[in-house]
Design a protein that fits this description.
With about 550 residues, this protein is of the alpha/beta class. It has two domains: about 220 residues, Rossmann fold, CATH 3.40.50; about 230 residues, no CATH class. It contains 16 helices and 15 strands. The strands form three sheets. It has a six-stranded antiparallel beta sheet, covered by helices on one side. A six-stranded mixed beta sheet has the order 8-12-13-3-14-15.
């Protein structure tokens, strides 16, 4: 619900704040007082392009703000954090600023935003009837949604859309799979060659490092054997070797410890040293005797190392990368072999989803046709009451070649307001007043399913009076049971039915015209209704007539 509209330095408005309430809000005033300027300012928040001409003379910028109560509209509250916008409890503040130099800015809840984003939120909350481009009911997607809600087919429509999206995903997946198959087929011979090259090498993980170490040993075999033999002799084999000397030290320390027990731990240390040196000597002896000078093996290792080096340069840089490349090649060739089966499986799934989509779309079309017939009948019953006895309304359903995301037909609301003329889309109806009354008929019927909380009617009273004026007033009052309604009117019958009455006035301050809005209650409202009736507002007879209208409302 629109709580407050604030306007500053826009056209002839200097500084204006309009507070609105639930139900039917009526806005009246003399011709030229500035009622249309309020609508123009509000249109900025619905996405209209800003013009520097709207900035009040002598100022550098115009500002329009609207505060909405979003309680009961959780889907809009949820959109704010999704777009990175702050939330202000259950309120939404939309702001547009137009500068005289032509630069424009916009905010949502105090955070900078685009004018398009402000317009998107504004159109979700306000439906303005009187200027075609802002009316949600003129948009085909909104007409389709409303028909589905009216026909209680919205759940089925959602299922159809879900099936269509699923089918498109499958089509895309099949297309991608076929493209992948063509790519693999073009490379298949090369993939097989590469895989064969890697598999023929029979690589072991870490083999390159093992070969490098083995080759180093083979190249230095004589040196290794000589040095290991010498170390073996020094540690263990010769007379007076390290192990023999340690054996003597072991005996001496044992004798000392028998006299001085404090040396016993050192005896253990000498014992350990003796066994360590002895074991090391034997090991080096075995190592020296096991070394073989083998030039043939060295050449074999070099050839193997060269092969692994070439493979690493080609598929590496490491041997693990070569092995990983082999696994990838195996997977790609396996993918090629299984590709046809996967494409067949996708086509089978597509056929099942397409069949289900066709069935649901047919059922949705049936529900839409029934709903369109009922909606057409109900709207045409109301149009004569609203001053259009020869008017025709219809919901056109244009079949599509195949079901799309929104079913198997296009939905279009059409009307002919003059006998003998073919119905045309609502957007092509010329008269703003007649179009507003068609919209009112629709809103009366759709009040419970229409999701836009605030409805604004401008020009709805153009060319009507008497019985029709009473009928229009009654319908607006009926719609206001489910929506907040703001009506700009010259009809006293309509103004008297409002839950809240506002008057637009133009006054001169410091030699400059300025528009203001005042809330009317009590006798002030009686005098305004009397003025609208064409009588003297100060006449008791005119005021009695006004009181009679107000009491009937």
């Amino acid at each position: 619900m629109l709580i407050e509209l604030r306007i500053r330095d826009f056209a002839v408005i200097r500084d204006l704040s309009v507070e609105l309430g639930p139900g039917l809000n009526t806005l009246t005033g003399e011709t030229g007082a500035g009622k249309s300027i309020l609508i123009g300012a509000l249109s900025l928040l619905l996405g209209e392009r800003a013009s520097s001409d709207s900035v009040r003379a002598g100022t550098d910028r115009a500002v329009v703000e609207a505060v909405f109560d979003l309680s009961g509209r959780p889907e809009i509250l949820q959109r704010l954090p999704e777009l990175g916008l702050p939330t202000e409890d259950e309120f939404l503040l939309l702001r547009r600023e137009v500068q005289a130099q032509g630069r424009n800015r916009a905010w949502i809840n105090g955070s900078p935003a685009t004018a398009g984003a402000v317009g998107e939120f504004g159109r979700a909350l306000v439906d303005l009837h009187g200027q075609h481009e802002h009316q949600t009911l003129l948009r085909p997607d909104e007409q389709r949604r409303i028909l589905d809600d009216f026909a209680e087919a919205d759940g089925l429509a959602g299922e159809v859309e879900g099936l269509y999206r699923e089918l498109q995903e499958l089509v895309g997946e099949r297309r991608a799979r076929e493209e992948r198959m063509r790519e693999l087929e073009a490379r298949a011979d090369f993939l097989r060659f590469q895989l064969q090259e890697i598999e023929d090498a029979e690589i072991r993980p870490g083999e390159d490092e093992e070969l490098e170490l083995e080759l180093k040993r083979l190249d230095h075999a004589e040196d290794l054997a000589r040095d290991a033999e010498e170390a073996y002799v020094l540690l263990y084999a010769e007379e007076g070797s390290a192990s023999e000397r340690l054996s003597r030290v072991r005996e001496l320390v044992a004798r000392l410890a028998r006299v001085d027990p404090s040396l016993a731990p050192h005896g253990e240390e000498v014992e350990n040293a003796y066994h360590l040196v002895t074991e090391l000597g034997r090991t080096l002896g075995d190592y020296a005797s096991g070394i073989e000078v083998n030039p043939g093996r060295a050449e074999e290792v070099r050839r193997r190392s060269d092969l692994l080096f070439r493979l690493k340069r080609k598929y590496g840089p490491d041997l693990d990368d070569v092995l990983a490349t082999g696994r990838r090649l195996q997977e790609e060739l396996a993918e090629l072999e299984s590709g046809e089966l996967e494409v067949e499986a996708l086509e089978g799934k597509m056929a099942r989803v397409r069949t289900l989509l066709d069935e649901r779309a047919v059922e949705l079309g049936r529900m839409r046709r029934e709903g369109a017939h009922r909606l057409t009948e109900r709207v045409e019953e109301l149009l004569p009451e609203l001053g259009m006895p020869g008017a025709v309304f219809q919901v056109a359903l244009e079949p599509l070649d195949e079901p799309g995301p929104h079913g198997g037909e296009r939905v279009a609301f059409q009307a002919s307001l003059n006998p003998g003329f073919e119905p045309r889309p609502l957007a092509r109806i010329a008269s703003g007043g007649e179009l507003s009354r068609v919209m009112l008929a629709l809103k009366t019927i759709l009040a419970r399913v229409d999701r836009v909380p605030t409805l604004i009617f401008d020009e709805i009273d153009a060319g009507i009076g008497g019985t029709v004026a009473h009928a229009v007033s009654a319908k607006l009052r009926e719609v206001s049971d489910h929506h907040q309604v703001l009506v700009i009117t010259h009809l006293p019958q309509l103004a008297s039915r409002g839950h809240r009455h506002l008057r637009v006035e133009k006054e001169t301050r410091d030699g400059v015209a300025a528009t203001t809005v005042v809330f009317l209650d009590g006798e002030a409202r009686v005098r305004e209704i009397a003025r609208m009736l064409g009588g003297d507002p100060e006449s008791e007879t005119s005021r009695d007539h006004a009181r009679e209208l107000l009491s009937a409302g």
